[in-house]
Write a structure and sequence with these properties.
The protein folds into 2 domains: about 375 residues, Alpha-Beta Barrel (TIM Barrel), CATH 3.20.20.80; about 220 residues, Exo-inulinase, domain 1 (Jelly Rolls), CATH 2.60.120. About 20% of the residues lie in helices and about 30% in strands. The protein is built from 10 helices and 28 strands. The longest helix has 22 residues. It is elongated. The N and C termini lie far apart (about 85 Å). The N terminus and C terminus are likely disordered.
Amino acid sequence: MVSNAAKLLTGGILAAAIAAGAQTPDSPYLYGIHWYGNTDGIGVGQLTDVETMTGGKGIWVLDIALTDESTANPWDLVWTPGNKTVPGYRVGHAQKVVSGKGHSLIYRLQPGWGRNVPHSSDPYTLANYAADCKSAATLLANWCHVWVIGNEVNLTEENYRWSGSGYTQTWTPMPAEYAATYVACRDKIHEVTPNTNPANQLVLMQPPSPGVASGIRFMDSNEFLLRQIEAVADKSKIDGFCLHAYAGGGEELREDFFDALREQLMVIDAAGLANRPVYIGEWNHAMPNPTEAANGARFLHTTLAALYAWNTGSGGEWPGQPNHNVVAATWFVYPAGVGWDDYSLQAKKTTGGTFDTDPWKAFQYACGFSYPRGLNGNGAIIPSSTIWWQDDFSGSTLDQSAPLPDWKAEPANGGNVALNGAGRLRLYGSTSYAIGSVRTAGYAYADFALETDIQFTNAARIAADEANFDLRWREGSRGYSLTLYSSNSTVRPGSVYLRRTNNWSETLASASVPGGINTGDTFRIFVRANGSSHEIKIVRLPSQTVVVNWTGANAISDSGQKVGWIRLMTYNLREVQLDRFILAGPNWLGSSAGIGEWQSFSK
């Protein structure tokens, strides 16, 4: 029980802090950390190793507070247990992080660890969660106005529900269930006017765990992100987004980071939310030894420089369009001794290291450049009726860097990818089950129209099995594959099938091709994916004979996958050549199938 004297004392501290907190503006910088660390041993305004690392700059700090006081530890709650009107540990912590230091807080709110969306059987209901979010916003009104509702909801281990005696049973909340949770919590937070500068609430949608569905993810990250956006009927209630992206291969570990970031930003922009602020809530690199610590140090300071270049550049998502800015990026994590030392800046600090070997010094070094925070939005406005980009496959090497076209070559089993030097892309092989493949890795598309001309320059199979060309779209866990089987294939010869990627037994449509698919045969393929509608038209050239026409009333209706990569590939086939590739908005009507286009094949 909290005494009346204690309530008066804490209330007086809170009132005094309200007057002081209103003068603190948002950090003007890009830099951020996840978890400031334990503040029990410092006073208000007392500087720590964090401020030494930032060179005295006020940066962004993401912290976490839990709202279900029946299961949370007292230090995880905003309020004193049993009384949501009395400040608890988080209030004092927030005051010590912000006051006199210029840091800006972002608070992630969730009912408990591994709990994000209240299940219908939970004793802690959505109404409880939303009301507690308002209580948290009220008690932290002097120090925080940026919030994240939930975390990586597409991970099974992030979703526990009531089992009858505790929150021990996992479940898989769908994007629409998360969206309802987000809106309920967002609306209650917006009932509170913060004493910050700016004095407005900014409630961010949760960051999905980046990657395709796997043993740990029950839904692709891009898919979950798009579906949670679509499930909010009133898009004005989406204030902004928190995203996650992590180190990977290539260019000082930045390739996978920017692939994941770019894809998620493309989903947001394609949904018409190019003006919404985006924060990176987690980015990191595992550093279990000095070698990986050095890799992490270079990844850290070069990525901050690259994010600044991204924010001030254009063409990274759509040609000629500005890049959707990242307001701030908070490294996971700062403090040592909290169970994440392989990622911790503080744990990796050394006495003799440099910014290329010590992640803590790398952060300090990057702060010396004073990279400004990104704009709130500034993303691409995606046209719906014009060509977005086109690849004529000119030159001698495949385009593999931004701006678009930007392919990732992924041959396998002895397959090959090359340009022929005369305006065609070759996908070919000579060993059993060879795969020639290119993919739009780092670029994810939902609704679009595409057109390409393909020639079976050698339709022979390599081994005694199926031999085909695949055009895949919305590729991920449940994408679509338009498969053209050579007449030499031992499986489905001379036919076209629309199948589900990763579940090849699921056929959505099929047709035999009059005259078969033989060496020298050339086809123009047109695909329009728009919502659940998939329209496909295949024309034989130069005769312009329509061999497949799944358009209009014959369009395939399927909503199994809404966003993903595009892939061009051969399997166990000697060679296919593509003359061009056009990607456009979903309302683009396609080019004519005139003889002039066929003549380009004779180059």
